[in-house]
Design goal:
Blueprint lengths: L3 E4 L5 E4 L12 H17 L4 H38 L1
Antiparallel strand pairs: 1-2
Helix pairs in contact: 1-2
């Protein structure tokens, strides 16, 4: 966890310490979509640096791709199993 310093108008410096992150649920495409929307809103509001937000969005996009590939693989296996049962 990194801290950031910020100088206030009157010259004093404060350390900004982020709150411990709560667990993020990324078990479904909808979970990932919701997290990506949070990142987007954070960038729009200025609470997430755009460079950090871009990286987070990229990783979330990769998770979507993996989720979709895993889903397609399970579907293909089910189709193959059904076809093999019909041959028997």
């Amino acid at each position: 966890m990194t801290t950031k310093s910020r100088t206030l108008e009157h010259g004093s410096v404060v350390e900004l310490v982020p709150n411990p992150a709560s667990p993020i649920r990324l078990h479904t495409l909808d979970d990932i979509r919701l997290e990506m929307a949070k990142v987007y809103r954070g960038m729009r509001s200025g609470s997430i640096d755009p460079q950090d937000g871009t990286r987070l969005a990229f990783v979330l996009g990769q998770l979507v791709r993996l989720f979709e590939q895993s889903s397609q693989e399970r579907r293909l296996e089910a189709i193959e199993q059904t076809l093999n049962q019909r041959k028997s």
